[in-house]
Amino acid sequence: MATTTAIDIEQKSIDTVRILSVDAVQKANSGHPGTPMDAAPMAHVLWTRYMRYNPKDPAWPNRDRFVLSCGHASMLQYSFLFLTGYDLTLDDIKQFRQLHSRTPGHPEYGMTPGIEVTTGPLGQGFANAIGMAIAQKELAARFNKPGFDIFDYHIYGICSDGDLMEGVASEAASYAGQLGLGNLIFLYDDNHITIEGNTEITFREDVGKRFEAYGWHVQVLGEGSGNDLDAIDRAVQAAKAERGRPSIIKIRTHIGYGSPNKVDTAEAHGSALGVEEVKLVKKFFGFDPAQSFAVPQEVQEYYRLVGEAGAQLEQEWKALFEQYRAKYPELAAEYEMALKDQLPKDWEKKLPVFRLSDGKDGMLSTRVAGGKVLNSIAASLPGLIGGAADLSPSTETHLKDYSSFSALDPGGRNFHFGIREHAMGAVLNGMALTKGIIPYGATFFIFSEYMRPPVRLAAIMKIRPIYVYTHDSIGLGEDGTTHQPVEQLISMRSIPNITVIRPADANETALAWKAALTHTDGPVALVLTRQNVPIIEPGKYKSTGDLSNGAYILSEPDRAPELILIGTGSEVGLVLQAQQKLKENGIATRVVSMPSWELFEKQDEGYKQRVFPKGIKKRLAVEAGSPLGWHKYVTDDGDVLGITRFGESAPGPEVFKEFGFTVDNVVNKAKALLGR
Ligand SMILES: Cc1ncc(C[n+]2csc(CCOP(=O)(O)OP(=O)(O)O)c2C)c(N)n1
Ligand SMILES: [Mg+2]
User: Fold this and answer.
1) What is the fold of 547-674?
2) Nearest to 430 by CA among 48, 123, 51
């Protein structure tokens, strides 16, 4: 009879998760009850039989990662976190979706212990998991030694119909298949329901065949599998045994399972079931309809024991790591520094300083400069890995001394993301969530549009992928309107927590990389030119401050300035020329290089005042992009030379001229400001 009891307690535990979820949604009168009800058994199998985690140390490095890609089913995850003993209480569950609670509507990284990634925008979590799987392979290749599998964890996830309808999932799945990520296992909650009803109305493709075509290991479990622990268990077992391909297990479930009137309907998806229906659900599962948030003692104990077993796993790993430290002290130290977000000592000594002779006639594009910087520092930063969305020759982001990441070469540091910007952004997030990895991804600035959702999520999570966006303005020339960014700078700057840096020349580009690599609480976008710009040798001007200040006085006139010219990126060279011409006209002009609004905003008031004194209100900002937002810095007494329409197809210098980015026009605008 012992086995019957074991089965009973498992069933009761699963049903407790279902009812906790239903109660929390009912109390909040908001949320998604139906999916936790249908997916509780598959989650239970993962949490009790497969996943290695320690609730008392959610950041244990070799823990398995869990991603709930369908983040709307958050109560499923919160229930398991609470029941297995993470720092989450029943009161937290009762505060589901309330202000400042630790149980927000969708799982949020950094908010709730045990949440690995912020999910909610469908498809993102799925693609993030692929980044996590890549990161695990990288860490293993870098740190594991014979007898020391320091990193051998898996990435588990649950995804939904909506996740797999989204394009980003297709891009990411294609990439994961290409890379043969055998450490990745997704359970697909095949419940046939989305918000508008049955998936028949819009999604009749054979998902299993699709994933087979991507090169995945696919298992399709039929009717009844949603509640069949043994069937799910066998499938996960087989998925784990598959080492050369990512796995997906399609499990047929019924949304709102246990709700007599709402099962299999879209009504169970996104709103509270209703007081009466909740009672019927409790009856169905043999719970007391009069009680809410009931957690049977034996269920609590059962899950707690599972959680406690995880502590033991971590202890074993720690013991292994101690032996590893004794044998490989340098590698152990390297990893421990990475855990603290510290970079190897003296890495910045490898940053190049550019002289006029490094360019052609003293000119070098910031993209080429960026490539030189990257290749100079790569050897001293083993965690710096990345690539481009099929544009590495144009973005100059290839690491010349390193191979490409693949199934056969998991230590490769170059990534060929393919023409999949959206997946690249999401994969970078999964990589960035892994300590020890600093990922970068490159494309043309205009195609930042194709990866905006994961950029926003990186900013929300305050994680630190680095974006290398080249071909940053109309200056790119002949490719024309479709490729010329106009509104992208202000659009990117409008995202909270992001740092946008548009360096003026090769030397600012080196400092921009330095700023990016030392920035640990949010993504950084490096915005670089296609065309050559003058190299500004250090010491050429009497400068005050540098790129790390966001804005600084690059060139000061001989007497008190009457006017401030502000330039960013390629326009700094232009305003420097204008400064000279204005001097010939008897006008004393300060030139401020302003590569980053966000870095400037972090400076103290005193510094800001020194760069932009209240007494000098005549200011002209020059930037080849939308003028929106610049009035904060130029004040009502100033002006902006920007762009308010789409670009043109012509050689870059001609396009610049067409849009008024000439020395004469800058000088005329400056004079107009001064009334001369
Ligand atoms: C990118 C994105 N678009 C739209 C939504 C809004 N939304 C939330 S859940 C959902 C449908 C979910 O269907 P499914 O993924 O099958 O989840 P289930 O109803 O089965 O839980 C939609 C459209 C979203 N969260 N993300
Ligand atoms: Mg569904």
Assistant:
1) Rossmann fold (3.40.50)
2) 123
**Highest CATH level, class, for 347-534:** alpha beta
* pTM score over 0.85: yes
Selection from 134, 117, 115, 133 nearest residue 461 by Cα? 117
Options 10, 116, 421, 508, the catalytic residue: 421
Residue to substitute in 35, 74, 122, 264 for testing ligand 1 pocket (most ligand atoms within 8 angstroms of CB): 122
- Residue 395 CA to ligand 1 center (angstroms) comes to 35
Residues 142, 134 contacting (CB under 8 angstroms) = no
pLDDT band at 101 (very low <50, low <70, confident <90, very high): very high
Query: Among the atoms of ligand 1, which is closest to the Cα of residue 162?
Result: 15
The residue type at 250: K
Q: Judge whether residue 505 has pLDDT over 50.
A: yes
Is ligand 1 within 6 A of the CB of residue 227?
Answer: no
pLDDT digits (tens, 9 = 90+) for 127-173: 999 999 999 999 999 999 999 999 999 999 999 999 999 999 999 99
Specify the pairing of strand 532-534 against strand 363-365. antiparallel
Measured in Å, residue 192 CA sits from the centre of ligand 2 at 5
Dig out the tokens for 623 from the structure: 């930037």
d(CA 113, CA 577): 54
The predicted structure's pLDDT at residue 4:
52
pLDDT tens, 18-62?
999 999 999 999 999 999 999 999 999 999 999 999 999 999 999
Is the CATH number of domain 2-311 3.40.50.970? yes
What is the domain partition of the chain in residue ranges?
2-311, 347-534, 547-674
Instruction: Please indicate whether the domains covering 2-311 and 547-674 agree at the CATH topology level.
Output: yes
> What percentage of the chain's residues is helix, strand, coil (to nearest 5)?
45, 15, 40
| H/E run at residue 392 | helix 392-395
Kindly tell me the burial class for residue 17, based on how many C-beta atoms sit within 10 Å of its own C-beta (0-12, 13-18, 19 or more): buried
Catalytic residue at 478? no
- pLDDT surpasses 60 at 1: no
In the chain, what percentage of residues exceed pLDDT 70?
99
Pocket perturbation via mutation, ligand 1, pick of 42, 194, 271 by most ligand atoms within 8 A of CB: 194
